[in-house]
Design a protein that fits this description.
Layout: H1 8-15, H2 32-43, H3 47-56, E1 58-61, H4 69-87, E2 108-110, H5 118-124, H6 127-137, E3 142-151, E4 158-161, E5 177-183, E6 194-196, E7 217-218, E8 226-230, E9 235-237, E10 246-254, H7 270-274, H8 278-283
Antiparallel strand pairs: 1-8, 2-3, 3-10, 4-9, 5-8, 5-10, 6-7, 6-9
Bound molecules: 2-oxoglutaric acid and fe (ii) ion.
Length: 312
């Protein structure tokens, strides 16, 4: 039977009355917002950093392209203020500190910082951070955490790992997270810098055993730089040998798709939990080492690292 030709709009309406936002007619191909993103990356001098991020998995954006020295100073002050408020430690960046500062691989990690000081919010909205995160994770990417690390001389190394915790390998080609670390003090070989294995983000899994150590590079960065790495990059850090503190603020941004549709965690009563074996609480996300506030993550890491097997 001969069909009366419809317009594309008619046939789309007949088969698909509900249209998703962003999938309007004519949306195939580059949308205007993607071209806008390209223009901002170009204007901010970030195109070479995008290429380096794609090829090596890590890029250091120098201070001139990131934030004003005033904002970096506000961040340094804010980190030291939180240290004083939460932990009663009055320190300056020239001090050497004992305890978690030089016994934990990150140094002292302070979590849940966004609302502690407007400087943490202003840095989140920094145009360079926003542009590179949107390029990497899409314009609907979200904040996962804002943490500060305060690291003093003599601590242990942080072993190579990816930041794609809980993600079963092989990871999707579209990385779910990106680490954007603001160096508040210099990073050189003596300063306990981040180390990484260039190109390892292409392997889409955690390193196993001693893999990668023969190919590490150290991050060299001036205070005020934004160090950006792919969530799948193998990275860690070396012990600090120089005097004073290494200060950094770590913004972890993520794609928004892995969330529960119904959030029972806050409302489920102890009585309901007690009626069931522990698996019930686990099904509601109770045992997941995520969703922390200022107490931060449990650092034993036992249930966060998904190994190199696609079956676990
Ligand atoms: O301390 C460092 O240099 C690396 C920290 C790290 O692994 C992270 O922020 O994911
Ligand atoms: Fe990491």
């Amino acid at each position: 039977m001969a069909m009366t030709p419809n317009t594309a709009a008619d046939s789309a309406a007949a088969t698909s009355p509900h249209r998703f936002q962003g999938l309007e007619d004519g949306a195939v191909g580059l949308r205007a917002d993607v071209l806008d993103l390209y223009a901002s990356l170009q204007k901010l001098g970030l195109l070479e950093h995008v290429a380096e991020l794609d090829i090596k998995g890590l890029t250091v954006i120098p201070p001139e392209k990131v934030a004003s020295p005033e904002l970096i100073e506000r961040l340094r002050t804010a980190v030291l203020d939180v240290l004083a408020r939460r932990h009663g430690v009055q320190a300056s960046r020239q001090d050497n500190l004992e305890g978690e500062y030089n016994s934990m691989p990150f140094g002292k990690l302070m979590s849940y910082l966004l609302l502690e000081d407007a400087a943490f919010q202003d840095m989140l909205m920094n145009p360079a951070l926003q542009a590179i995160a949107s390029y990497r994770l899409g314009k609907n990417c979200c904040l996962s955490s804002v943490q500060a690390a305060v690291k003093s001389r003599g601590g242990p190394a942080l072993a190579l790992h990816t930041d794609e915790l809980y993600v079963a390998p092989p990871y999707s080609q579209y990385t779910t997270g990106t680490n954007l670390t603001v160096a508040l003090t210099d990073y050189s070989a003596e300063d306990g810098p981040t180390i990484f294995v260039p190109g390892s983000h292409k392997l889409r899994r955690q390193p196993v055993g001693n893999e990668g150590y023969d190919q590490i590079e150290r991050v060299e960065a001036r205070a005020g730089s934004l160090i950006v790495w792919d969530g799948a990059l193998w990275h860690g850090s070396q012990p600090r040998r120089s005097e004073g503190l290494r200060l950094s603020v770590i913004y972890y941004l993520m794609r928004p798709h892995m969330r529960v549709q119904e959030d029972y965690q806050a409302e489920v009563s102890a009585e309901v939990l007690a009626r069931h074996p522990p698996r019930f609480a686990a099904m509601l996300g109770k045992t997941i080492n995520l969703g922390w506030k200022h107490q931060g993550p449990r650092l034993d890491g036992a249930d966060t690292l998904v190994g190199s097997s696609p079956y676990c």
